[in-house]
Amino acid sequence: MADNSLPLVTDPGARTATRRDRLRAVAVEADLDAIIISNLVNVRYLTGFTGSNAALLVRPNGADVLATDGRYTTQARAQAPDLEIVIERACAPALAGLAARNGALRLGYESHVVTIDGLAHLQSAMAGLGSGTEPVSIHAAVETLRAIKDGSEIEALRAACGIADRALASLIADGGLRAGRTEREVGRDLDNRMLSLGAEAVSFETIVAAGANSAIPHHRPDEAVLAGGDFVKLDFGATYAGYHSDMTRTFVLGAPAAWQRDIYDLVATSQRLGREALTVGAAVVDVDAAARTPIVEAGHGPAFTHGLGHGVGLEIHEAPGLSALGAGKLEADMVVTVEPGVYLPGRGGVRIEDTLVVGTDGPDLLTLTSKELVAL
Amino acid sequence: MADNSLPLVTDPGARTATRRDRLRAVAVEADLDAIIISNLVNVRYLTGFTGSNAALLVRPNGADVLATDGRYTTQARAQAPDLEIVIERACAPALAGLAARNGALRLGYESHVVTIDGLAHLQSAMAGLGSGTEPVSIHAAVETLRAIKDGSEIEALRAACGIADRALASLIADGGLRAGRTEREVGRDLDNRMLSLGAEAVSFETIVAAGANSAIPHHRPDEAVLAGGDFVKLDFGATYAGYHSDMTRTFVLGAPAAWQRDIYDLVATSQRLGREALTVGAAVVDVDAAARTPIVEAGHGPAFTHGLGHGVGLEIHEAPGLSALGAGKLEADMVVTVEPGVYLPGRGGVRIEDTLVVGTDGPDLLTLTSKELVAL
User: Fold this and answer.
1) B320: helix, strand or coil
2) Structural domains of chain A sorted by starting position, each given as residue range(s) with its CATH number in brackets
3) H/E element holding B321?
4) Per the CB < 8 Å rule, is A52 touching B218?
5) Facing residues of A261 across strands?
6) Cβ <8 Å between A113 and B115
7) Among A32, A275, B15, B194, which residue's beta carbon has the most beta carbons within 10 A?
8) Which one of A115, A188, A217 has the shortest CB-CB distance to B113?
């Protein structure tokens, strides 16, 4: 049963119309006659439609069209009642043909999503129609819009993170994190608790990594048995109303050894510095550096093998990326993870991760589970 | 705990080497100097590597190279011990640069997977190296190889289907399919039974559709409560060793009404005719027609809104497609679903689906659950 304290999603039509208007402004600025959206997550963001085959035509005059196939006729009408709906298996080509027949000369498309073959299909659907429609890349325009969350999105993310917090608390309270269980058993237990607390699904395959496995950043839970003295790293999340939470905590089964306490404290310090660097206007490379510096200074730089964090929303990984290779600056209402880690092959590793909203008054922490070193 | 009767995966190195040799033959035939594989599922098929960022370079001389990023160094060495491994975040561009430096002039790539931006990245990685490397589409060459399963793949599919069969049998035996439960409760119960029986994961989000919801071909389980007289449609599967099962059964809670028996019998007849049409050399459009004809003749043609079936393997939907729009003929050791349905909006719907291996002695049924109309 869903927890009744979770927020309800209301007024989706007005929200998605506002988002399409923002994309329309992109179309006008780039002198485009229409835009075809092929990325299904972007279609959902702009329309509310959640089917597995769809494309969206956004036009400057506001006469937007959603295409999907016959399996989803009823669902499309229910989820996107404000849109004209075209039923056609080849969604994007159908919309390209429609745009070309209506005289579009410059047709925006998502060049990071559309494949070489997909563009050929669009072009053949337009051939002979209109007067020579030209495809023009809009790059990741919708992903850029999606990086800044609106109020309803932040509430969905807060609800998703709350589910994950409560699931972990109940796992620990019930003694679910104990020597003798396998990684898989712990992972399934945690997943079921999230689903019982109202998660639609898990955000990604839950990582449970015990002992030496904790040194593998993205270990898949297996039949390894948790043992006293082990680090146990849990990286997991819940989805709620389509939005993903993402949190990592690392525990020790029994009293921590000195080396475990040392790398835990180092990662915790790094993670705190990373959170403190989340300010509006900060360059993402500087946020990464703020967290990375203490790890490098402690001589563990090569053991921090990934970026500091990433945006979270309708996808588990989205813009902005917080890493040394990232670009751009943080803006208010971006939602990101901060997740440094140190991994010592053959011994064990620690990662500590929160999901936070960037804001002018400092970050708003969505994952509330304690980050003190807990010995179970 | 995994069921010990499930087959173990053995000797993966020799199998993946054989598959790469088949792709090498494609390279030689198309006069290619190397091929870059970007589709992660294809990388897994050809190497055994299961990480979330990778690309593979296949070369005529056999010196194949797997690229992945720093998170997966250990895993790549363990899963693909027979391959040279390059650690680089931008995997495909790194391999394109390597191929160009080694003098490749015609570089095969997957034009149905590589995006417009992705091809630009490959080209810029090759710029100034070698003497003008030209990207050449190999289209879906690996998916074509994957359509014919080898013995180990068929055993993995059989194990996956067996898990689904046993999970459904135990759900029914324990009275889990009963009036008063919600669709979501039934779905989670079935999922947990598959996981307890050794599934790595569920093949896709389990469909539980009760009453009028059963008329929605791809209904997501919600808080709808199962009631006496309802059709209850379950479409679900388990993955085992990466391979997916897919099965649909439709039940009636209580004594079936005449209209329910009528459409159930119609769909069951259609499904039997579809299975009987699965012969080596049959055109996929003829298989679809064999199952579709009785439904059309009964006046329900427009209520069968989707194709008859699809290949199943490392992906839940793969080649070949069995539909009126499909192309090609069935070959031995293809594994496909046969899943006709009739959906009466507002009333209810029936779909019956099996997964089968195409063979010279007739199809080998992998999903063994009875297709008799069961009134619960």
Assistant:
1) strand
2) 13-146 (3.40.350.10), 151-365 (3.90.230.10)
3) strand B318-322
4) yes
5) none
6) yes
7) B194
8) A115
